[in-house]
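It is worth pausing here to work through a concrete case rather than discussing structure prediction in the abstract. The textbook approach is simple: state the sequence, then state the predicted structure, then interpret. We follow exactly that order.
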Amino acid sequence: MLDHQSSSTFPVPTSSVAAEPAVKLETVNATTTSTAARTTLNTRQKTPFTKDFILLAVTQLTSLFGNQVLRYALPLYLLIETGSAALFGSIMAASFIPMLVVFPIGGIIADRVNKRNIMIVLDSCTALLILAFNVLSGVFDVVPLIAATMILLFGIYGAYQPAVMSSVPVLIDSEHILQANSIIDLISSSAGIAGPVLGGVLFSVFGLKPILYASIACFALSALVEVFMQIPHQKSQTQGNALLLGLTDLKESFAFLFLKQPILWKVALVYSSTNLLLSSLVMIAVPVVITQHLGFEPDLANRLYGYAQGVIASGAVLGGLLVGILSKRLKPQASPFILAASAFSILIAGFALHLLSNSYASFALMIIGCGLMLVMSTLFQIQMLTYIQVLTPVHLTGKVISSVMCLCMCASPLGQLIYGLVFDSIGYRVFIPFYIAFGVMLIIIFLTRQVFKQLTQLVQD
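Step two, the predicted structure:
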């Protein structure tokens, strides 16, 4: 196993070789073994299209497909059953809390435990969780049951994603990380398209049960594929108090973020603003507007919401494709313009709801604007993730990425909670939040221009 080689074979110092001829042969053998291990790892990293990277991508496709189907079906079922946008937004916000708590812990675990084993255990647990929900949904009240299931789902996701994100720089050479990230993101976005579209069709025709069965199959298949995946792992010190070790790891990652590379937490704050103002708006506004404000029949509204999710997610696919195409030209100084394009895309959606009287026209233009926002935000997200991976030492990758992502995601529950309350109180004037988000985002972009100039210099150095 590669992890055993990397932890047990080291070149012997030259002085010992000169002193003892008998030891020289052992030294050469050890050095050869160590070189072979490094060569194996380097060969693995020459191109993103290795067996283990492909298996990682396949597990992302199946696991995220099941995740997207559930993220579509469970909140929509709750919204239809209760008719409350505030409850909808509150449960979505509450679901993010365990993810935010678990994310840094997941990063610590990802740097200390074999990443493949983490993925196998978590996918298996998710399949069992949905199976339990399916059994208990006919016994208990659906509102607390959905809330508990969503909270557990997001918590598992918080532990799962650091293992995936920290696997990429281990499997891929730094020269290809941007392309590898774009491939992972493209596959994830494709699952984001297929999941809601299929979920919308199944939900409108058969109800919730087939969606639960499909997601269980996806997570079980993902766990099975992960058994055949090999991710290099260097064992870390595990002796001592687990709490103290975890606190030490967190201290080390935050020292790197705030003292050695402070530009990274500044970038995280900018990205957090996009989650707060733009992504949260789309997550709450789209289902609420389609099901409650455009005048569609319930079955038609459910199908249109599924189609909308697919179209919006296709923006993320296009963003991932553009990253692959523009990987050699995409520079940090372009980031403010990408964020400005995201803000103008949201403005398009606001215009659609404000100025168009035809429900279908409003629906179409709103979805186009939200989809364009996903194109731009995906470009920005993959850029920032790649720079974090490149600027972070391998032994800190899981902890640092999870800490940055935790900072970024902290804004999502707050944004969803606020938008849920706003849409419950503004009545038919659903365009107002879009205009406000656009204006505030432009101000943030103007105030943070220097951040990306500094990032450009750091990456070039």
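Step three, interpretation. Residues 1-46 have pLDDT under 50 and may be disordered. The CA atoms of residues 119 and 160 lie 6 Å apart.
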